[in-house]
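To illustrate the input format used throughout this study, we show a single complete record. The first block contains the structure-token representation of the backbone; no residue identities are included at this stage. The design step must infer an amino acid for every position from geometry alone.
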């Protein structure tokens, strides 16, 4: 089965819709045609990437919306976010995370939803486009249920806390 140009070799998910629905471009001028699904994945992964409509009207908006809820390099984790600490352990790498990496991982685990923080700010923090303030760090630590020290050491749960809803009981 043919796939769009944007699919990563390790991504085993199927394309959704036309393979030329959107065009994703990077800041160096490179671009690739993609289905909405893989366009969103590459948009979530590539720093300062942009998306534009190609063959399907409205597809660029859909790809952008999905990218805001997709962790970078989603293909590596079968759509389940993995922290850099978890990835390092998995790969057998001795690694000390930076504050930005810990915040990014925490926000990915929270699926870019941090109570008390706007979705746009969570997206910018989760994609390391801005630096976290003390207030941001406190909100993220509280959302994960860990201390600030544990957050900044990358020592927090590898899976997002479950929301307290009726279906989880």
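Output of the design step:
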């Amino acid at each position: 089965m043919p796939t769009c140009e944007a699919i990563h070799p390790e991504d085993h998910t199927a394309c959704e819709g036309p393979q030329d629905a959107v065009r994703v471009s990077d800041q160096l001028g490179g671009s690739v045609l993609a289905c909405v699904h893989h366009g969103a994945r590459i948009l979530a992964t590539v720093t300062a990437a942009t998306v534009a409509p190609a063959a399907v009207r409205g597809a660029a908006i859909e790809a952008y919306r999905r990218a805001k809820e997709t962790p970078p390099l989603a293909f590596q984790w079968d759509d389940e976010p993995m922290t850099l600490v978890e990835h390092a352990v998995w790969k057998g790498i001795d690694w000390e995370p930076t504050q930005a990496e810990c915040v990014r991982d925490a926000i990915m685990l929270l699926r870019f939803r941090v109570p008390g923080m706007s979705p746009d700010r969570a997206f910018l923090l989760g994609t390391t486009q801005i630096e976290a303030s003390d207030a941001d760090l406190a909100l993220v630590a509280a959302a994960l249920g860990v201390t600030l020290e544990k957050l900044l050491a990358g020592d927090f749960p590898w899976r997002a806390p479950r929301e307290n809803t009726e279906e989880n009981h």
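Structural context for interpreting the output: Confidence is low (pLDDT under 50) at residues 160-169. The helical segments are 36-45, 59-67, 84-91, 99-109, 119-126, 134-144, 148-152.
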